[in-house]
Amino acid sequence: MSRRPAPSPRGARTHRTRSSSRLRGWLRHHRAMCLDSAWRLLRTPVSSLVTMLAIAIAMVLPAGLWLTLDSARLLDAELTESATLTAYLAPGVGDGEAARIDEALGAQPGVARTRLITAAEGMAEFQQALGLEDALGRLDDNPLPASVVVTPEAPAPEAARALAESLAAVPGVEEVRLDLAWIERLRSLAELGQRVTLALAVLFGGGVLLVVGNTIRLAVESRRKEIEVVTLIGATHGFVRRPFLYSGAWYGLGGGLLAWGLLTLGGEWLATPVSALAASYGASFSLPRLGVGGSAFLVGCSMLLGWLGAWMAVSRHLAEVKPR
Question: Which of 31, 113, 133, 309 has its CA 20 to 30 A from that of 65?
Answer without folding.
Answer: 309
